Amino acid sequence: MFYINLQGKQPIYEQIRQQIVRFVELGILKPNEQLPSVRQLAQENGINPNTVAKAYQELEKEGVIYTLQKKGAYVAEKHYSGLYDHEQLIKYLTPLKDGGVRKEELVAAVEELFKEEN
User: Fold this and answer.
1) In whole angstroms, how far apart are CA 98 and each of 37, 95, 101?
2) Do the Cβ atoms of 97 and 71 come closer than 8 Å?
3) Could you give the domains of the chain?
4) Which end of the chain is more exposed for a tag (fewer CB within 10 A), N or C?
5) Could you give phi then psi for residue 101, rounded to 5 degrees?
6) pLDDT tens digits for range 23-80
7) CB atoms < 10 A from the CB of 24, how many?
8) What digits encode the pLDDT tens for the residues 73-106?
9) Residue 105 three-state SS
10) 3-state secondary structure of 74
């Protein structure tokens, strides 16, 4: 399910974080769906469990996932509810920019979104 580039410049935990965010955005991962365990994801991809744990910690801070003690990690109901500071906004927009979305397209989408509120 995950593609990890072990030779890339991007940290592995960030690759995992971005892919989970993308899977949630695309509806591949649904709210309250359980994620693979830290150990399982690490073994499947041949990486250190601490790396996976760091990705999950970042995702939990961002509100994308939640964890239940001794039960695992799950996709949060609404992962953008905590989107209120500039730094978080940049984190969410960076994958779009990296994916080829032009500034003009992004601005147009934001304008359309806020137009709907009025």
Assistant:
1) 28, 5, 7
2) no
3) 12-117 (1.10.10.10)
4) C
5) -70, 125
6) 998 889 999 999 999 999 999 999 999 999 999 999 999 999 999 998 999 999 875 5
7) 20
8) 999 987 554 445 577 678 778 888 888 889 999 8
9) helix
10) strand
3-state secondary structure string, 26-41? HCCCCCCCECCCHHHH
Hey, which bits of 47-93 come out as E strands? 65-68, 72-75
Q: 43 is written with which tokens? A: 């073994």
CA distances from 100 to 5, 54, 96 (A): 19, 27, 7
Q: Up-side HSE of residue 20: CA atoms within 13 Å toward CB? A: 29
Tell me the CB-side half-sphere exposure of residue 84, using CA atoms within 13 A: 4
Tokens 């304008």 belong to which residue?
111
Determine the angle formed by the axes of helices 12-26 and 49-62, rounding to 10 degrees: 50
Residues 116 and 118: their CA atoms lie apart, in Å, by 6
